[in-house]
C-alpha cells in the first residue's frame, strides 16, 4: 500500500521463539496504520506485513507474521493521514502453537524439529513424569519407518524440558505412556528411548518443568540405523562398536521393560524380540570396529 507521509514511531522486536506473532493497536486514540519490516527505512520492498483497519467499524490495525527466533523485526506505528496522531497502544502476542493439543499433533520425522512452547496450554491429562502438575506442552506424531529402538532428546533446548512418548493421545482411554524423562540429558534437557514397530504412529509430548516454556530442539534418531550395534554411550553413540557397546549390552541382559529403554535389543535386525540375549551379542561381535 502507499506509505502515508504521516508521523510515525518505530520499535525493534527480537523474539526468543520462532512462530506466529500477532501485533495490534487496539486501544489507540486515532486511526492507525501498522507495519512490520526487515530493515530501515520502511519501504514496500522490505515490508513483511501491513494493515490499516483490521475489522469493520474499527480504526485499529493488526498484523500476523511468521517470526524466526533471534531475528530483529522493525515495527512501525503511523496514522492513516495527516492529523491522525496521538496516544496509541501496541499489543504483541505470540500465537498458540499449531500443535498445542494432541489432536493437532504435527508430523515429526527423523532428524531435528524446532519449536516453541511459549503461549501453549497445559494438557491436564498428561503429566507422566517430573512434577505432578502439567505444564504447557506441544505434540508430534511420529510414524516409525522401521522396527526397533527410537532415541529422542531435547538437547540444546533453552528451558528445562519434559519429554514423553504415548501410544495414542491421552484422551484415548487405551493410551499408555511408553517412555518418559525429565533431566537425563545435560542442561536439564530430556532423553529417552522406546521400542517402535514399523508403521505404528506414536505421539511425542514436549513440555516443561512446572510452568517453564521456551524454544526447543526435538531430535529423533529412528531404528533404520546403519550401525545398530553402536549403542554406547546411550543417546550419543560414538561411531564405533567396541567394549563400551559390549558392556552396555551385558548390563541390559534379559527381558526389556515395558516400552523400553532397550537399545541393546538389536536382533533380529529390524525386528527386535524384546529380549537382550545371545542374538544381540552376536550382532555386536559381527559389527566390531568402525561403523560404515
Domain unit count: 3
Helix and strand pattern: EEEEEEEEEEEEEEEEEHEEHE
Structural class: mainly beta
Q: What is the quaternary state of this protein?
A: single chain
Number of distinct beta strands? 20
Largest sheet: 5 strands, mixed
Sheet with most strands: strand arrangement: 8-10-15-12-13
| pLDDT averaged residue by residue | 86
Helix content: under 10%
- Can you identify the CATH class of the largest domain? Mainly Beta
Keywords:
Jelly Rolls; five-stranded mixed β-sheet; mainly beta; Type 1 dockerin domain; 3 domains; 6% helix
Task: Give me a quick take on this structure.
With 292 residues, the chain is mainly beta.
Walk me through what this model shows.
This protein is mainly beta and 292 residues long. Helix content is 6%, strand content 35%. The chain folds into three domains: 8-94, Sandwich (Jelly Rolls), CATH 2.60.120.380; 102-221, Sandwich (Jelly Rolls); 240-290, Type 1 dockerin domain (Orthogonal Bundle). The chain has a five-stranded mixed beta sheet with strand order 8-10-15-12-13, with no helix packed on it. A four-stranded antiparallel beta sheet has the order 1-6-3-4, with no helix packed on it. The radius of gyration is 25 Å and the shape is elongated. The longest helix is centred in the C-terminal third of the chain and has 9 residues, at 243-251. The chain contains two helices and 20 strands. It has helices spanning 243-251, 278-286; strands at 8-13, 19-24, 32-37, 47-51, 62-67, 73-79, 91-94, 106-108, 111-116, 138-143, 148-153, 161-166, 177-181, 191-196, 201-208, 215-221, 240-241, 254-255, 275-276, 289-290.
